[in-house]
């Protein structure tokens, strides 16, 4: 799949139905040797003030992606798991 095919797709968490953001508003971490996507980094949309003060991001590991559709990417993130919590950058 090409990067251009991912742009504009909404990322939805299957666990809580939350719209997490769009590819294009996000950053991708790509393995430079293989060209494979390692993770998607999204701005935290939870709290407006929190976004501006902490500059927190949500890291979505590529292995959490369950389905890529025509308009959405469905991910399986359990926010109680420390591995999938917000990170400050």
Descriptive account of the structure:
The protein is mainly beta and 89 residues long. The chain is built from two helices and eight strands; from the N terminus they run αββββαββββ. It has helices spanning 3-6, 48-54; strands spanning 10-13, 19-22, 27-30, 37-43, 56-61, 65-68, 72-75, 86-88. The strands form two sheets. It has a four-stranded mixed beta sheet with strand order 2-1-7-6, with no helix packed on it. A four-stranded antiparallel beta sheet has the order 3-4-5-8. A hairpin with a 3-residue loop joins strand 6 (65-68) and strand 7 (72-75). 12% of the residues are buried.
Which band does the percent of strand residues land in?
A: 35-45%
CATH architecture descriptor text? Roll
Percent of residues in helices: 10-25%
The major β-sheet equals: 4 strands, mixed
CATH fourth-tier homologous superfamily: PRC-barrel domain
SSE order, one letter for each helix or strand? HEEEEHEEEE
Put simply, the count of helices is 2
- CATH class placement: Mainly Beta
Spatial gap, N to C terminus = 28 Å
Average of per-residue pLDDT values: 79
Shape annotation = globular
* Domain unit count: 1
Low-confidence stretches: 48-54, 85-89
Reading side by side through the largest sheet, how are the strands ordered? 2-1-7-6
Assembly state (oligomeric): single chain
**Based on DSSP secondary structure assignment, what is the total number of beta strands?**
8
Rounded to an integer, what's the Rg over CA atoms?
A: 13 Å
What is the SS-derived class?
Answer: mainly beta
CATH topology tier name: SH3 type barrels
